[in-house]
Write a structure and sequence with these properties.
It is a single chain. By secondary structure, the chain is an alpha+beta fold. It is 30% helix and 26% strand.
Length: 282
Amino acid sequence: MVIGNESRRLLLLLTILFLTIQLRVSSVTGLCEHSFTDRNKLYNFSLASPLPRFPHGILSEDGFYKVMVNDTVLWFQLCDGMIFNHDPPRCVGCWDCGGPSHCGMGCSALVSKKAGGYQVCTTIGHVSSTNVSIIDEQNPYKGVIVRMSSSGKERNCSLSVSIICDSTGVHGPDSVEILGTCDYATVLRHPSGCATIISFHEGGFGWFGTLMIIIICLFGAYLLAGTVYRFFFLRIRGIEAIPNLDFWASLPHRTQSFLSSLVRKFRGPSAGQRSSYSPVNF
C-alpha cells in the first residue's frame, strides 16, 4: 500500500514537472515569434526554436549575454529571464530584478553604471514586455529587432537588440549604444535571425467569391432551420418538410421564363412573327 502511494506521488510529480516544462517552452516560443507576408512570400521568425548547432535557439546557453563598455555593463537574455550560475551582477539597486541575493534573475535586461564608487543597477527589460519587429521591411532577410522595456517610478527604460541574420554562427554582442536617458541598443549576429520563407501563389475567390459563399451558407442555414422547425414542431414529414417547397420546385421554370423574356426583349420579334404580317396596299 505504501509502495502504491509512493508510485502515485512520483507519477503526479513527473506530470506536474512535464506540464510546467511544456508551459514554459510554449510561452518562450510564443514571445519570440513573428510572421508577415510580402510579395507572395511568408516570412516566419521563430527565435526560440532549436537549430542544429543551437538547441536553445537565440537563448544564451550561459543563461545571459554580457557586454562591457567602459564603466557600463549590460546583461540580458532574449525570449526568457536571465539565469546566473556564475558571474552574477554585483551592484546596488537590484530590487526590481531579483533583489540583492538573486540580482539579475527577476528580469530579462539589466544595466549597471558606476556612481559614487559603486555599481548601480537599473532594470531595463522584462520578459513580458518583449516585442519583435522587422529591422528593414524593404529587406526582410536582414533580421529582426527584439525590444524589451521596464517602467519605473522615475523613468522608463528599454533595450533593443538587433538580431542580424548570419548563418555562419554567433558574433557579438560587442558594443552598447545609448539612445536616450535610459534606452540602450546592441547588435547580435545569429542564425536564428534568418527567416523561414514559404512561397505561395495568389489565389482564392476574391470578394465576389466570398460573397457567394456567404449567401450559400445563409441559404443552407435557412433551409436547415426551416426543415427542422416544420419536421419537429409542425409534424410535417417527407419532402414537404422543406420550407416553401412549391416556390423552389417552380424556380427552374420561373428562371427559364425570365431568361426567355430577356432574350426576346433584346433580340426583338422573331422571323416567324415578322412574316405573319402581310403588307396592305391602299
